[in-house]
């Protein structure tokens, strides 16, 4: 529905308009039984009283012939029986029947009130307005056909309009209350649906974050494996000690890669608070261990961290660690054996700057590993999500430079 339909939804028919009477609730059965008994009882008692020599039924009808009283009885009884279907689409035909009946019927008074009330509850306001005007018109005709003893024409008409107005207002109040309850229920259902959508989006975001973690962690480890395996391949005459050392590094790197993979995949099984960072989550203080790990693989790393790692926000530190990790991995892939300089500097309020440089590779001596190039794309996205920026490329000094700036709030 559009906004206009939502704003004026109270004018629309309720779901009860097309409901099946066989699907009534226990409360509906009790109410319908009570209304039916009242309508039938009033019809029987009113007719019996009007047939007495001196009727005392409410306000006695003077001069009503017997045939009119009996006609009133049978017509009113049909209307009372029709009240069983007042919750269905037969309400409008029943209302039209009672509208005609109200021009002369006294016995159908309760039936008429019930029908007016039902129309006010279950039909749109324009339908109620038309029905109200029609009933008001028949109320003007009624005192002419069935004059009351002791009351003038205008008194009878006024009292009829009062009862009609009370039934209409009562029904409108009930309808408004039901619409209010329905709107509350609709809001609750919409809020629940929106919550489920937010949960689904959070899961999707978390999967993307886990995928980035898996790439950053495993690419670093696997590049070490590839580097040492390549060294063994190009040195078939390596000494037993060199083979043993390389095999040990390969075994340790493979073991660490599996351990990191278990930690990353483990986040799919753990229940953690919403928004909490997922392991493994290194900090800026672990850059020294990262550099030592690369040096053990034969990479010449010059690490210069000009900030206190403890003062850097955790989120910024994690992002900086991943950038340095990916920079060292790229250096091993594309420029094995090159001298890599890593500088980390900055201050609160000015931001954190990470600068990684190594000589531009010559002759295509780098190790070919699937997925080359995707790491820098992921780092650019990671830096942007952190509110920073990242650039990379060849410098005039024939170096490959990877530079990132990350926000560091005061």
Describe, in plain words, how this protein is organized in 3D.
Residues 206-271 form the Signal transduction histidine kinase subgroup 3 dimerisation and phosphoacceptor domain. GO terms for molecular function: ATP binding; phosphorelay sensor kinase activity; protein dimerization activity. This is histidine kinase. Its EC number is 2.7.13.3. With 410 residues, the chain is an alpha+beta fold. Among the domains are: 3-151, no CATH class; 284-410, Histidine kinase-like ATPase, C-terminal domain (Heat Shock Protein 90), CATH 3.30.565.10. The protein is 60% helix and 9% strand. It has helices spanning 3-7, 26-50, 66-82, 91-101, 109-122, 125-145, 153-234, 240-266, 287-296, 314-334, 374-385; strands spanning 300-305, 339-347, 351-359, 389-394, 399-406. A hairpin with a 3-residue loop joins strand 2 (339-347) and strand 3. It is rod-shaped, with a radius of gyration of 43 Å. Mean pLDDT is 76; it is low at 1-22 and 365-371.
């Amino acid at each position: 529905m559009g906004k206009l339909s939502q704003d004026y939804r109270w004018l629309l028919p309720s779901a009860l308009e097309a409901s099946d009477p066989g699907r009534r609730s226990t409360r509906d059965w009790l109410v319908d039984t009570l209304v039916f008994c009242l309508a039938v009882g009033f019809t029987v008692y009113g007719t019996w009283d009007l047939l007495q020599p001196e009727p005392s039924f409410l306000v006695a009808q003077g001069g009503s012939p017997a045939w009119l009283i009996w006609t009133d009885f049978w017509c009113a009884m049909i209307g009372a029986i029709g009240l069983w279907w007042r919750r269905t689409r037969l309400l409008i035909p029943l209302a039209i029947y009672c509208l005609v009946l109200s021009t002369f019927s006294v016995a159908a008074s309760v039936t008429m009130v019930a029908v007016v009330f039902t129309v006010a509850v279950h039909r749109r306001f324009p339908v109620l307005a038309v029905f109200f005007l029609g009933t008001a018109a028949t109320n003007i005709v009624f005192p002419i056909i069935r004059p009351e003893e002791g009351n003038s024409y205008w008194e009878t008409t006024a009292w009829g309009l009062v009862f009609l107005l009370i039934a209409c207002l009562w029904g409108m109040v009930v309808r408004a209350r039901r619409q209010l309850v329905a709107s509350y229920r609709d809001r609750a259902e919409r809020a629940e649906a929106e919550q489920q959508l937010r949960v689904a989006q959070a899961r999707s975001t978390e999967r993307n974050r886990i995928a980035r973690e898996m790439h950053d962690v495993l690419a670093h480890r696997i590049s070490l494996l590839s580097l040492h395996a390549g060294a063994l391949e190009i040195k078939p005459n390596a000494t037993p000690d060199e083979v043993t050392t390389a095999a040990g590094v390969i075994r340790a790197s493979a073991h660490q890669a599996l351990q990191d993979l278990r930690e990353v995949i483990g986040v799919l099984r753990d229940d953690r608070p919403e928004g909490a960072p997922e392991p493994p989550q290194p900090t800026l203080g672990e850059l020294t261990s990262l550099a030592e790990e690369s040096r053990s693989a034969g990479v010449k790393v010059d690490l210069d961290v000009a900030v206190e790692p403890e003062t850097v926000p955790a989120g910024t530190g994690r992002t900086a660690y991943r950038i340095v990790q990916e920079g060292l991995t790229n250096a091993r892939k594309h420029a094995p054996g090159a001298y890599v300089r890593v500088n980390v500097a900055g201050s609160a309020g000015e931001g954190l700057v990470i600068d990684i440089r190594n000589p531009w590779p010559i002759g295509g001596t780098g190790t070919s590993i699937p997925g080359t190039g995707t790491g820098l794309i992921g780092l650019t996205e990671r830096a942007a999500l952190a509110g920073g920026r990242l650039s990379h490329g060849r410098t005039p000094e024939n170096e490959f430079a990877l530079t990132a700036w990350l926000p560091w709030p005061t």
